[in-house]
Amino acid sequence: MNTPELWQFTSSHYNEKARWALDFKHLAHIRHSLVPGFHVPVVKRMTGQTQVPVLKLNGAIITDSSKIIEALERAWPEPPLYPTDAEERRRALELEDYFDEELGPYIRRWFFYEARDYPEFFHAAFVSHASTAVQLARRAMSPLIAPMMRRMMDINPESAKVAYLKMLAAMDRLEKDLRSSGYLAADRFTVADLTAAALLSPIVRPPQFPYGSELVPPPPIAKVRADLEPRLAFQWALRIYREHRGKSTEVAEGKNAARGRSQSEATKVS
Ligand SMILES: N[C@@H](CCC(=O)N[C@@H](CS)C(=O)NCC(=O)O)C(=O)O
């Protein structure tokens, strides 16, 4: 079996869902970090669309973070991200879907609107892992790519206001649905908790987020972060990261078995 390969953006919350699931299952995997804008031909050639994360798993190409987690869960049920109980499983998947649809796109839109005047932050968060030549080219193309991205993500002052309110509504729902166990379903860490915490990461900025958590956010984002910090949903996401994010099982290309467990080892665990 081949080592799974993930095509990703570094500081991205949907991509964080996929790599968290890989890390959680201790699967040795290779990551290809793409640069936003320059990712288009690479991803389009592979998938016919342009969004990451993309996972190559035993020769199959899988797009969409939820489908990636589903495929990982099917191939490596242990440790589980889906509850065993059918009703709890339905609840966890419904919450995953809710946060995917009602939080993910809106927190991103609000974030990029507030970060619009801070290109250096964007560069440090999404581009700084690339080679010097790619970084220089990305800087040169930025005046073309940045407005294109704003159009694609429907980022404007009005949509950003709505997006901010949607982010607050998702935090309300999280607080309402949290059980006394401190988890959203099955009284243990599941795909629902992983999804909500990963998708809140742009505002919560947990220290365990694997890329750029040391970066100081643009002042408008830092201000809102400070305002929301006392909220239960915010503190909950910090705790979920602290207790469940764990270590990366990424391996370098050609060194598949260096860290984490390889696929053949993983299949032995049941
Ligand atoms: N529903 C998808 C959303 C993925 C998504 O929105 N990816 C963004 C990065 S956060 C992306 O690739 N944007 C670039 C593009 O659309 O070309 C998932 O869960 O994977």
Structural write-up:
The chain is mainly alpha-helical. The chain folds into two domains: 5-82 and 247-268, 3-Layer(aba) Sandwich (Glutaredoxin), CATH 3.40.30.10; 86-244, Glutathione S-transferase Yfyf (Class Pi), Chain A, domain 2 (Up-down Bundle), CATH 1.20.1050. It has helices spanning 13-24, 39-47, 65-75, 86-102, 104-114, 119-126, 132-152, 157-177, 191-204, 219-228, 232-244, 263-268, and strands at residues 5-8, 30-33, 54-57, 60-63. It has a four-stranded mixed beta sheet with strand order 2-1-3-4, with helices on both faces. A hairpin with a 2-residue loop joins strand 3 and strand 4. The longest helix has 21 residues, at 132-152. Residues 256-270 have low confidence and may be disordered. The structure holds glutathione (GSH). Residues 9, 12, 14, 50-53, 64-66, 100 line the site of glutathione.
Layout of secondary structure:
Blueprint: E1 5-8, H1 13-24, E2 30-33, H2 39-47, E3 54-57, E4 60-63, H3 65-75, H4 86-102, H5 104-114, H6 119-126, H7 132-152, H8 157-177, H9 191-204, H10 219-228, H11 232-244, H12 263-268
Parallel strand pairs: 1-2
Antiparallel strand pairs: 1-3, 3-4
The protein binds glutathione.
The site of glutathione has 11 residues, from helix 3.
The portion of residues forming beta strands comes to: 5-15%
Q: Which fold name is given in CATH as the topology of the largest domain?
A: Glutathione S-transferase Yfyf (Class Pi), Chain A, domain 2
What is the mean pLDDT? Answer: 93
Instruction: Provide the low-confidence segments as ranges.
Output: 256-270
CATH architectural group of the largest domain:
Up-down Bundle
- Please, how many domains? 2
Number of helices: 12
C-alpha-based Rg, rounded: 18 Å
Proportion in helices? 55-70%
Alpha-beta classification = mainly alpha
The first-to-last residue Cα distance is 17 Å
Distinct ligands, ions and cofactors found in the model: glutathione
Order of helices and strands: EHEHEEHHHHHHHHHH
Give the total of beta strands.
4
**Overall outline:** globular
Read across the widest sheet, the strand sequence of neighbours is 2-1-3-4
CATH class of the largest domain: Mainly Alpha
